């Protein structure tokens, strides 16, 4: 075909060059493309993946809508699992176009073809940053809109002193990258809470606060639902102590009371070993419920020891076995031998033995009754002392769990916060 073109010199060299350019796919074809996709491909070819460089070396990023959600609260490792969804708006003047040439006010571009700002959770131990879509929206003036999702495990030392009536605040610090005045400047508009109730914890409020221009944080107010922990932790301990108090109605004789109290101590010990993994971890404000369980165990053991000692006192009036008094020689005589009497002197001697035996037996019964009365009197006094102390203790413990406040510095991750 080129040879045929050379055979027509009347066309002129300029016309021949134009035809060759058209056949070779020259630039006049690209200039004629005015579709939205052609515009997008043209902007993609710019390959502007670096941050827009303004004169003041700062790129403003606006977040008109930020959605916060508490996913879970790990009371063992003291971590707050959160989910944030943010709509980002920023402007890149190098991606503007003339609407008189391309008659479109917006176009869709792939996220990885342009620079996008990143949000960081300052006090997070682990963070994942995800795009809700592989595309973003670009306007003719260079403004871009994109939505991202941040999942973060925030290091939050929640005040667990009042567990299971715990309530505390936890900051979630949000910022963008900036060093020596260069970077991005974040501005957040509206904050909303999504589904604030998960498991045993409930998100009461979430407020957007600001320490300085580059330090924004969400103050999350958390409150524990006490119903489930109270039923599984507090109620069993109360019922076991109540059963121990009622066991004082059992008689000291026979050993039924002692066996029942030993069973209560072993049951409560097994109960503590099972719940060890469910109790919150240690922190600046350790849960007072740990001390509560220790006091309950001490009360049960003291009650068991008192019952054992009173049983001993009721039997022989001695607390310690090595202080047992020597028995009268007639106390262990269980029978009277019948012998044939020879004379009156022997009759009198045998009669004295019978009288001595009966007197010793009567004295033993009197002494045994005296020991039983002493043991029952001491047991009654201990019962009222134990009941009053136990009731006062539980009332005081409930008051402390509900009313006491233990303060924790939640901004320790910002070392110069108080400067």
Task: Explain what you see.
It is a single chain. This protein has 419 residues and is an alpha+beta fold. The protein has 2 domains: 185 residues, Neurotransmitter-gated ion-channel ligand-binding domain (Acetylcholine Binding Protein, Chain: A), CATH 2.70.170; 176 residues, no CATH class. It is 38% helix and 26% strand. It is built from 8 helices and 13 strands. Strands 1, 2, 3, 5, 6, 7, 9 and 10 form an 8-stranded mixed sheet that branches. β1 and β2 form a beta hairpin. The longest helix is centred in the last third of the chain and has 60 residues. The radius of gyration is 44 Å and the shape is rod-shaped. It starts with a helix and ends in a 16-residue tail after the last helix.
């Amino acid at each position: 075909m080129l040879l045929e073109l050379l055979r027509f010199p009347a066309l002129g060299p300029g016309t021949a060059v134009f035809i060759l350019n058209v056949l070779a796919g020259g630039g006049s074809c690209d200039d004629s493309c005015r579709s939205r996709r052609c515009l997008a491909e043209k902007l993609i070819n710019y390959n502007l993946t670096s941050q827009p460089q303004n004169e003041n070396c700062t790129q403003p990023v606006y977040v008109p809508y930020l959605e916060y959600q508490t996913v879970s609260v790990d009371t063992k490792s003291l971590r707050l699992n959160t989910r944030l969804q943010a709509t980002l708006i920023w402007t890149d003047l190098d991606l503007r176009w003339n609407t008189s040439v391309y008659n479109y006010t917006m176009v869709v571009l792939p996220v990885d073809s342009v620079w996008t700002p990143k949000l960081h959770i300052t006090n997070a131990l682990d963070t994942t940053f995800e795009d809700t879509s592989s595309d973003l929206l670009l306007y003719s003036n260079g403004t871009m809109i994109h939505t991202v999702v941040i999942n973060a495990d925030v290091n939050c030392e929640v005040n667990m002193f009042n567990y299971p009536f715990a309530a505390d605040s936890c900051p979630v610090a949000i910022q963008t990258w900036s060093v020596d005045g260069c970077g991005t400047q974040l501005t957040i508009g509206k904050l909303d809470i999504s589904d604030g109730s998960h498991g045993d914890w409930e998100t009461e409020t979430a407020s957007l606060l600001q320490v300085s221009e580059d330090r924004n944080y969400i103050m999350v107010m958390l409150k524990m639902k006490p119903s489930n922990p109270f039923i599984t932790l507090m109620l069993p301990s109360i019922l076991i102590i109540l059963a121990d108090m009622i066991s004082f109605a059992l008689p000291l004789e026979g050993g039924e009371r002692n066996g029942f109290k030993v069973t209560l101590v072993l049951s409560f010990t097994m109960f503590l070993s099972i719940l060890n993994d469910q109790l919150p971890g240690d922190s600046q404000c350790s849960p007072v419920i740990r001390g509560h369980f220790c006091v309950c165990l001490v009360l049960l053991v003291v009650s068991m020891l008192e019952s054992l000692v009173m049983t001993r006192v009721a039997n022989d009036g001695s607390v310690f076995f090595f202080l047992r008094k020597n028995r009268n020689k007639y106390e262990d005589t269980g029978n009277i031998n019948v012998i044939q009497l020879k004379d009156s002197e022997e009759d009198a001697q045998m009669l004295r033995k019978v009288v001595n035996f009966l007197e010793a037996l009567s004295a033993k019964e009197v002494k045994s009754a005296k020991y039983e009365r002493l043991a029952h009197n001491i047991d009654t006094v201990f019962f009222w002392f134990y009941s009053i102390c136990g009731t006062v203790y539980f009332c005081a413990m409930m008051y402390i769990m509900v009313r006491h406040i233990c303060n924790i510095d939640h901004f320790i991750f910002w070392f110069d916060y108080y400067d």
